[in-house]
Amino acid sequence: MKRRNFIKTSTLAGAGMAFGNFTFPTSKSHILSLSFDDGFKKSFYRIAEIHEHYGLKACLNVIATGHFKSFHTEPKWIPQKLLGDFDDWNALKVRGHEIMPHTWEHLNLTEIPVDKAKENIDKCLAYFETHLEGYSAANAVYNFAYNASTTELEDYALEKVRAVRTGGWLVLKDTLVNPIPVAAIAARLGCWGHGPDFCDDYVEQEVNKFLKSDGGWLILNLHGLDEEGWGPIRSEYLDNLLKRLIKADYLEVLPTGEVLNRVRKK
Ligand SMILES: [Zn+2]
Questions:
Q1: pLDDT on residue 2
Q2: According to the model, what pLDDT value does residue 24 have?
Q3: Could you report the per-residue pLDDT of 10-22, keeping only the tens digit for each?
Q4: From the CA atom positions of the chain, what is the Rg in Å?
Q5: Which of 92, 102, 94 is nearest to 35 (CA)?
Q6: What are phi and psi of 258, to 5 degrees?
Q7: Helices (H), ranges, 151-231
Q8: Measured in angstroms, how far is the CA atom of residue 248 from the centroid of ligand 1?
Q9: Distance in Å, CA 43 to ligand 1 centroid
Q10: What is the 23 CA–ligand 1 centroid distance (Å)?
Q11: Helix (H, G, I), strand (E, B), or coil: what is residue 193?
């Protein structure tokens, strides 16, 4: 039986229903997070605007040093001149969007000495502490660059933040989805993405597959809109996608930190 039917006919569908020792954070069976990385100024304002149009909050992850003129990692996919700064991120946060740490300087932390990798995590988180208003490490999701991590680096970050987001292939077993959290535990969130070309078709396919499934929490990792970033999504497509998704009564579109915070607040 498809989850959709289950939700409509089951008495378990009440919001915040207690079940054993757990409290379900949502009455919905499906949660989707569209987790945008890197911090393209033009794209991120537009992503926020599109989400706002449908009463949604965007999930935006930015590079701590992206606004420094010296930032030079991945010039083809993350050209420095396209990146915003913390005035932009604070402005978007005030509008209700989620701004989370992505990386210090966008290195693949599995390819550098582990001490330097840990130092990069520390520098990134320290920068967020001092430059992002209302930032709280206890509520933060650290989003590994390239979705590349090791268990040691995940553990290290989890000493400081609420959750880490990394490759779904690293932390999810035989499934594409994360469990919808039912307890306030530190989390290793797995995500999926597609590039370097436009990812509209990929997103459409994955979302449709997800909507027909029994549910869970799907996190898709995206970057910029239109011509910006690795594996961009067309703004028109994003608009159309959200317009359709808000009509699904068994689905919520939420930023990752908010999904976790719902459990904390119980
Ligand atoms: Zn990135």
A1: 41
A2: 44
A3: 333 333 333 333 4
A4: 18
A5: 102
A6: -70, -35
A7: 151-158, 168-171, 200-212
A8: 30
A9: 14
A10: 34
A11: coil
Q: Which residue has the higher pLDDT, 133 or 28?
A: 133
How far apart are the C-alpha atoms of 119 and 241, rounded to whole Å?
A: 39
- Cα 170 to ligand 1 centre (Å): 17
What are the domain boundaries of the chain? Answer: 23-264
Question: What's the 124 CA to ligand 1 centre distance in angstroms?
Answer: 13
In the chain, DSSP assigns E strands to: 18-19, 22-23, 30-38, 59-63, 98-103, 141-143, 163-167, 187-191, 216-222, 251-253
A 10 A CB-CB count for 183 gives: 12
Q: How far is CA 63 from CA 138, 146, 210, 216, 229, in A?
A: 19, 12, 29, 28, 13
Instruction: Give the separation between CA 28 and CA 10, rounded to whole angstroms.
Output: 12
Distance from Cα 59 to the centre of ligand 1, integer Å: 14
CA 175, CA 37: separation in Å to the nearest integer?
23
From CA 141, how far away is CA 132, in angstroms rounded?
A: 14
**Cis-peptide into 75, omega within 30 deg:** no
The Cα–Cα gap between 199 and 206 comes to 10
Q: Name the fold adopted by 23-264.
A: TIM Barrel (3.20.20)
Confidence of residue 173 (pLDDT cuts 50, 70, 90): confident
pTM, rounded to two decimals: 0.89
CA of 142 to the centre of ligand 1 (A): 12
Centre of ligand 1 from the C-alpha of residue 121, in Å: 14
Distance 35 CA to ligand 1 centre (A): 11
